[in-house]
Design goal:
- The model has no long low-confidence stretch (mean pLDDT about 95).
- The chain contains nine helices and eight strands.
- It has one domain: Jelly Rolls (Sandwich), CATH 2.60.120.10.
- Helix 4 crosses helix 5 and helix 8 packs across helix 9.
- A four-stranded antiparallel sheet has the order 1-8-3-6.
- With about 190 residues, the protein is α+β, with helices and mostly antiparallel strands.
- Helices cover about 50% and strands about 25% of the residues.
- About 30% of the residues are buried.
- The radius of gyration is 17 Å and the shape is globular.
- This is Cyclic nucleotide-binding domain-containing protein.
- Pfam families: cNMP_binding.
- It comes from Chitinophaga tropicalis.
Length: about 190
């Protein structure tokens, strides 16, 4: 759990006592490739800190996956709205390769946060960072052409281009796989 502790310290000041209080909230959980961390219509009861592997968030629109996010090592995967409100999720979160996570239990986290201000601050900053990543993706679509979106990923998120399949990447960029292949060829 050292990677998680490093992540926490990168977000906020966090005492040894707060870490001790947080430990009972956490469980390590492994997922096989294609396992679901969260399914559409379920309530999200967890934050998933990714230790190893990566996962994707996607909507199923008429039998077609529409990828909206990828979470890699050192990031948190969750459905912010469902986690905060207790409403059902409108999308899926699925492992794209074998995945090792540290799971924050929602109820236990809320109880710990009510008692310890450092834990409440951590939760707030973690959710803010996750929301910021989602907003970044939305802005890419508002501001950039297809070619510019791909170039943005090359410059700012090259790990996506190295690890994510062409099918998932094209869905994430909102283009056909053939279009993505043409864009990539132009960049060579």
């Amino acid at each position: 759990m050292q990677r998680l502790l490093n992540y926490i310290h990168s977000l906020t000041d966090f005492s040894e006592k707060s870490w001790e209080v947080l430990l009972p909230v956490l469980t390590r959980r492994e997922f096989r490739k294609d396992d679901f961390l969260l399914k559409e219509n379920e309530v999200c009861h967890s934050l998933f800190f990714i230790e190893q592997g990566y996962c994707k968030s996607y909507y199923d629109k008429d039998g077609v996956e529409k990828n909206t996010a990828f979470c890699f090592e050192g990031e948190v995967a969750t459905n912010i709205n469902s986690f905060a409100s207790g409403e059902r999720s409108t999308y899926n979160i699925q492992a794209c390769e074998p995945l090792t996570t540290v799971v924050f239990d929602r109820q236990k986290l809320f109880e710990a946060a009510a008692q310890w201000p450092e834990i409440e601050t951590l939760g707030r900053k973690c959710l803010r960072l996750t929301a910021s990543r989602l907003e970044e993706h939305a802005n890419i679509f508002k501001l950039y052409t297809t070619q510019e979106r791909y170039e943005y990923l090359e410059q700012n998120q090259p790990h996506l281009l190295q690890r994510v399949s062409l099918t998932d990447l094209s869905s994430y960029l909102g283009i056909a796989r053939e279009t993505l292949s043409r864009v990539r060829k132009r960049r060579l």
